[in-house]
Amino acid sequence: MVPKEVENSIHAYYETNGFHSGYGGIQINNEKERRFIFSIWSLYKTDNPKEIPSQFAVNLKSKGINVSSGEFGNEGSGGHSHLVYPWKANQTYKFLTGIKSIAGDSATYIGYYAMPEDNYTWHLLSQWTQNKTDTKTGFRNLYAFVENFGNNGTDYFKAYYGNQWIITPSGNWVELNQARFTTTAHPQRHQRFDYGAGVEGNLFYMYSGGFQHLKNIDAGDFITRKLNRKHPVIDFSKL
User: How far apart are CA 62 and CA 84, in angstroms?
Assistant: First the structure.
């Protein structure tokens, strides 16, 4: 959930479902365009997607209605998808990421989104097969972040994150209520001090930019939210 106070801060990426092979979330790309996104990296190390050998390719298997897809580079390379959608501040949006199959040296990932506008019905963003995968047992390195990808660092950015769960292959739900804070701020390489994170109620929050609040947490510190103890109800057979 993006609060009202930052709804006009453009060049914002509020990443929700990050993991070792991909990421997804919501963006404010400019004054008129907002997006839901889901992307998967190739494990071939290059910032130019044209350099990816065929055996390391990330192949699109399917995508949802009105979803755009293509390549991405400059931060590693791989397959990208997004849906242009006018999501609103102070509304909670949900994201679901799954591993649909692991076969041989490939893994297939799938990403969904859900909105309050239609009572949180799950919609497909996209499904990708990552070849030469290092995924053998499931997700790892789960993360989320707040990013300003423009040069408007005087703007303020903030998002709330809550009700995080994983479901194991055997069907067990596990609630994730603890996170470790990190930052790209650095005394020499990236001199920013207007960043931080914490907990409000049963939600994590992160913020950066705007020179409004100095850091309220050190890199490496842990934050813990209250347990909700009620996992999402999802009929996977209908996805």
Answer: 17
Q: Where are the domains positioned within the chain?
A: 4-168
Asked if the model's pLDDT at residue 98 lies above 90, the reply is yes
Q: pLDDT value at position 187? A: 85
Please name which of 18, 11, 1 lies closest in space to residue 182, comparing C-alpha atoms: 18
CA dist 28 and 216 (Å) reads: 25
Sign of the C-alpha dihedral, residues 107, 44, 128, 167?
positive
Q: Which two tokens stand for residue 165?
A: 């769960």
pLDDT tens-digit series, residues 180-217: 999 999 888 888 999 999 999 999 999 999 998 888 99
CB contact set of 12 (below 8 Å; sequence gap of 6+):
2, 6, 27, 28, 146, 147, 148, 149, 157
SS (H, E, C) 18-40: EECCEEEEEEECCCCCEEEEEEE
Rounded to an integer, what distance in angstroms lies between the CA atom of residue 239 and that of residue 236?
Answer: 5
Q: What is residue 157's DSSP assignment?
A: E
Q: Which two tokens stand for residue 22?
A: 């991909």
The token pair that represents 75 in the structure block: 């931060």
